[in-house]
């Protein structure tokens, strides 16, 4: 069995952590563009609850505890249903939490050498394999119900995702878990259902800004132009400048920005024309098995086991100006480095200088640099990045990169369904892999808000300074 997962930081350490507000500054600030949240790619869904499950026993230093183990369901924004297992045993699932599709690098799977084995389990067990008689025969399990199959699959996943010492209660489910654990082989991370790369571009007005490449498993993708396209004149085009409305995997998109006084986005300054725009793409497809799903409300990380035809979306933005630094700004969680990567690509003719965590960084003209903002585990973040010409980009989330050790307190939240009783000497056990349904929800929410308030009181404020090269 894999080694025990790395323990989370103690609650006291988390409470003392800073909630950093970082401002990246360039030239003197003009009227600010409306702040935008971190770019979204793939499916976004709301968790409905644990739907098909059996029982499992977690063996810990404080005794044995019985929990429910099985499949969750999620309702996709725009239409569709997802089935998932959890890969974060000791973290509670918040009721009606919003989840979004995420690369493994932004979760505990990124640093887990067994993540590929978890994907093999998903591809070779329930619900991907719904012939339960054949699955039972391979596992030597006699017969399996859907509940047994879901429980056995979840137990096998927990052994690899959390390094947990856990067994299925039902003997047939345990035989399935043992078979899956022993048979699992490394598999590559699945590609995103829909993503735009890069998520931000910049350049001069009067031409094509890009390219932004579409990566998807959908047959066709619909292009949604900027909401103010009629006013700004910005169009989404191919490399020849011809407007496009539908694309496919590998297509390259460009922002076609007119060079006149009607270009929208921000206030125009003397001798300078600046603005920004955002495009969205949307498709209907099945999300690849093995994609990770995370929540910004600290609800436990999930991994996809099955998908109906579902709505997926992705966004990208462009910024432009006639002169000076023109940074394209994006952010991505980086669990390997324990923080959030802020990437600034400067396509302007002057350097872009900013101060970050007490350190000044300069990105030369026509260069790109990524700066990692270090954070504590479970730490919320809210970064507002201010660039030249008043452009603002806002990136929010929670760093959730580790799983908790099996010797931690298992008392979390209960299901809306009846919770299983504890076994052994442990009392007051509740379901770990479940949506919140009791008074603990309010307590956890209150603690989360309290952390933000405390962090706000001690946040690190970086002084703003004008960039002399952009005067």
Distance between the termini: 61 Å
Shape: elongated
* Average predicted confidence as pLDDT: 78
Multimeric organization: single chain
Which runs of at least 5 residues are low in confidence (pLDDT < 50)? 1-37, 262-272, 406-471
Secondary-structure-derived class: alpha+beta
Radius of gyration: 24 Å
Q: What is the helix tally?
A: 7
Number of E-type strands: 24
Largest beta-sheet details: 6 strands, mixed
Strand percentage: 25-35%
Assign a percent range to the helix content: 10-25%
Task: Describe what you observe in this structure.
The chain has 471 residues and is an alpha+beta fold. It is 15% helix and 34% strand. It is built from 7 helices and 24 strands. It has helices spanning 11-15, 115-123, 132-139, 146-161, 171-183, 229-232, 440-457; strands at residues 41-42, 44-60, 63-76, 81-86, 98-102, 166-168, 194-197, 200-203, 208-216, 221-224, 235-237, 246-247, 252-256, 274-285, 292-295, 302-307, 310-321, 327-334, 339-346, 352-356, 359-363, 367-374, 380-386, 392-398. The strands form 6 sheets. Strands 1, 8, 10, 12, 14 and 17 form a 6-stranded mixed beta sheet that branches. A 6-stranded antiparallel beta barrel has the order 2-3-4-16-15-5. Strands 7-9-13-11 form a 4-stranded antiparallel beta sheet, with no helix packed on it. Strand 18 and strand 19 form a beta hairpin. Helix 4 (146-161) crosses helix 5. It starts with 10 loop residues before the first helix and ends in a 14-residue tail after the last helix. Mean pLDDT is 78; it is low at 1-37, 262-272 and 406-471.
């Amino acid at each position: 069995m894999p080694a025990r997962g790395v323990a989370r930081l103690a609650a006291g350490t988390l409470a003392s952590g800073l909630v950093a507000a970082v401002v990246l500054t360039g030239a003197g600030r003009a009227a600010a563009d409306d702040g935008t949240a971190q770019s979204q790619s793939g499916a976004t869904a709301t968790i409905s609850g644990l739907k098909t499950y059996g029982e499992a026993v977690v063996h810990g230093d404080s005794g044995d505890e019985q929990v429910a183990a099985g499949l969750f369901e999620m309702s996709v924004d725009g239409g569709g249903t997802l089935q998932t297992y959890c890969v974060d045993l000791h973290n509670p699932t918040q009721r009606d939490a919003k989840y979004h599709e995420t690369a493994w690098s932004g979760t505990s799977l990124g640093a887990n050498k067994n993540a590929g084995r978890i994907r093999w389990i998903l591809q070779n067990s329930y619900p991907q394999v719904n012939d339960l008689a054949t699955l039972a025969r391979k596992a030597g399990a006699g017969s399996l119900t859907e509940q047994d199959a879901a429980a056995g699959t979840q137990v096998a996943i927990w052994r690899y995702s959390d390094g947990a010492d856990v067994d299925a209660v039902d003997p047939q489910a345990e035989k399935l878990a043992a078979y899956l654990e022993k048979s699992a082989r490394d598999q590559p991370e699945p590609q995103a259902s829909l993503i735009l790369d890069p998520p931000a571009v910049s350049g001069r007005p009067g031409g094509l800004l890009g390219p932004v490449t579409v990566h998807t498993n959908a047959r066709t993708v619909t292009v949604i132009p900027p909401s103010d396209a009629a006013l700004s004149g910005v169009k989404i085009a191919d490399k020849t400048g011809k407007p496009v409305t539908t694309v496919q995997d590998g297509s390259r998109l460009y922002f076609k920005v007119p060079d006149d006084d009607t270009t929208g986005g921000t206030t125009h300054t003397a001798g300078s024309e600046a603005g920004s725009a955002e495009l969205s793409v949307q498709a209907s497809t099945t999300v690849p098995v093995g994609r990770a799903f995370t929540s910004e409300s600290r609800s436990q990380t999930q991994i996809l086991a099955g998908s109906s035809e579902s709505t997926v979306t992705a966004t990208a933005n462009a910024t432009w100006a006639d002169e000076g630094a023109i940074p394209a700004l994006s952010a991505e969680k980086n669990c390997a480095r324990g923080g959030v990567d802020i990437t600034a690509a400067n396509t302007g003719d002057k350097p872009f200088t900013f101060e970050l965590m007490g350190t000044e960084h300069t990105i030369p003209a026509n260069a790109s640099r990524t700066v990692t903002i270090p954070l504590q585990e479970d730490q919320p973040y809210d970064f507002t990045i201010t660039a030249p010409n008043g452009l603002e980009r806002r990136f929010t989330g929670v760093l959730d990169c580790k799983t908790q050790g099996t010797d931690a307190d298992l008392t979390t939240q209960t299901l809306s369904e009846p919770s299983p009783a504890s076994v052994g000497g442990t009392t007051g056990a509740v379901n770990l892999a479940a949506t919140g349904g009791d008074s603990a929800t309010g307590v956890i929410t209150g603690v989360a808000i309290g952390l933000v308030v405390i962090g706000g009181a001690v946040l690190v404020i970086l002084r703003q300074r004008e960039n002399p090269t952009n005067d």
